[in-house]
Amino acid sequence: MIPGISDAMINLAGTAVAAFLTLCVFSYLLGRNFLYRLALHILIGAGIAYAVVVALSTLYTHVWLRWIDASANSNIGMMGYLAFGVLLGVLLLFKISRRASGLGNISTGYLVGVGLGVAAGGALTGTLVAQSIAAATFTGTDPLAFFIGLLGTLTVLISFTFTATWRRGPLKAVARFVQGLSAVGRFFLYIALGATFAGVYVASVSVLIGRVQFFVPLVVAVLKYFGIE
């Protein structure tokens, strides 16, 4: 608590700042202007400051303290593991320099490789395999739902076949059949993408409604503060 300033005033000031920044963001509807750029810079600055604090906290907790513990226990393996991570982080800083940016490519390549490996593994085990197992072991009582689910799963997978169009001779009929299934799979993809877009749109509208409703307590608090009921 700040001496001479009540908690109500502090809450009112915080609400006023939030409302001002919200209006600054909404001003983008009138075109890119100073108020929108101001809110954008504040958002980026606050995000960078938070990221720096989190990074320093992570380095202190997961590197420095672990290094001290490993050094005290003579854990050479853990010390080597930590040193390798620190080395990659230091090499990444060389991306700042144009001449030495090649050294940073080592860390970038490592990050991209690990990220792709994790993403591919997650997509394979969490989406492709799970959806295939769900389609193969469907135990519902609705045959139509089973047929649509199985058809959608198979045709979507077939829609990623790009070599069937080059077939000639006796396999041309098979290629046309695969093309037809691919068209059905793309139809299911369009439905999924449309549903995803609709969900994002509904979420955005909900956020907009929440922001509009946010101004109601502010207006009421300002009116009460000036004695207007």
Low-confidence stretches: none
Instruction: Note the quaternary state here.
Output: single chain
Estimated structural class: mainly alpha
Give the biggest beta sheet: none
User: Between the first and last Cα atoms, what is the distance in angstroms?
Assistant: 28 Å
The averaged pLDDT comes out at 83
In short:
Helices cover 80% and strands 0% of the residues. It has 229 residues and is mostly helical.
Outline the structure in words:
The protein is an all-alpha fold and 229 residues long. It has a domain at 140-229. The chain contains six helices and no strands. Helix 1 packs across helix 2 (34-72). The chain is extended and about 90 Å long. The model has no long low-confidence stretch (mean pLDDT 83).
Structure keywords:
229 residues; mainly alpha; extended
Write the SSE topology.
Layout: H1 7-26, H2 34-72, H3 76-93, H4 101-136, H5 143-158, H6 172-225
Helix pairs in contact: 1-2, 1-6, 2-3, 3-4, 4-5, 5-6
